[in-house]
Amino acid sequence: MKWILGALVVVALFDLCLFLSTRRAAHGQSAVATPTPSPLALLAPTSAPPGTGLVITPTTEATAPASPNDLLYIVDKQHTLSASYVPPDLVPLTTVRTTTPKQMVRRVVLPHLEKLIADAKAAGFELAVTSAYRSYSEQEATHAYWVRIEGEAAADRVSAQAGQSEHQLGLALDLTSAGAGFILSENFGSLPEGKWLRENAHRYGFIIRYPEGKESVTGYAYEPWHIRYVGEEAATAIFQQGITLDEYMRSKR
């Protein structure tokens, strides 16, 4: 009697497995269970806002660091920061030249920025920081200014909306030079100091975040003055491969 009951149990389990397999097949699913994607992954956009003419492939949730305190954290038109986010280790920029007062960066950035500017000076170039950390509200005001000047569509190519700016991370800086008249201009990229920065920034852990010809990837026009600290390893890989941070993070999948 025991072996009969055992056989019946085995048959029942087999029938149950067959039933579940059939139900999956009926719904176009594999009989092998697959992980359920997170809601954030399902909601990730695949294109730029209407009217921009851009097609942007976003960094997926799987490749993006989970914390905005991470040096490789992506902030762009698809991945935003909250109004309350403030980097945990901001320090004032008092040891390098700035064109505007009360600039701050994350502590981890400072020694590398100091070395970059000192080495640039040794090479004959006087660099200065025009803008570093910006709060959510400061970015809101900055973007509103450019909308008034350029109109919304043009402004969105050159200025991030609040919550979409790397400056809020405390890892991004805008640099200018005496040769550029200490203003931000695309011409900076063609000056000797702009070329020096492009060829040497990675040695100090920085990248040109919005390089020429990459607007379809980054969502922003060419900005030879905008550098982003990512650490020497990532910066060197990005420089050597001629790619952006976005492409670098996707390659790590």
Instruction: State the CATH class of the largest domain.
Output: Alpha Beta
* Spatial ordering of strands, largest sheet: 3-4-6-5
Query: In the residues, how many domains can be counted?
Result: 2
Gap between N and C termini, in Å? 56 Å
Helical segment count: 9
Strand content: 5-15%
Q: What is the CATH architecture annotation of the largest domain?
A: 2-Layer Sandwich
Backbone CA Rg: 25 Å
Number of strands: 6
Helical content class? 25-40%
Quaternary status of these chains?
single chain
Shape: globular
The helix/strand class is alpha+beta
Succession of helices and strands: HHEEHEHHEHEHEHH
Mean pLDDT: 80
Low-confidence stretches: 1-62
What composes the largest sheet? 4 strands, antiparallel
Q: Quote the CATH topology of the largest domain.
A: Muramoyl-pentapeptide Carboxypeptidase, domain 2
Summarize, please.
It is built from nine helices and six strands, in the order H-H-E-E-H-E-H-H-E-H-E-H-E-H-H. By secondary structure, the protein is α+β, with helices and mostly antiparallel strands.
Task: Provide keyphrases for this structure.
253 residues; Muramoyl-pentapeptide Carboxypeptidase, domain 2; 9 helices; 2 domains; 4-stranded antiparallel sheet
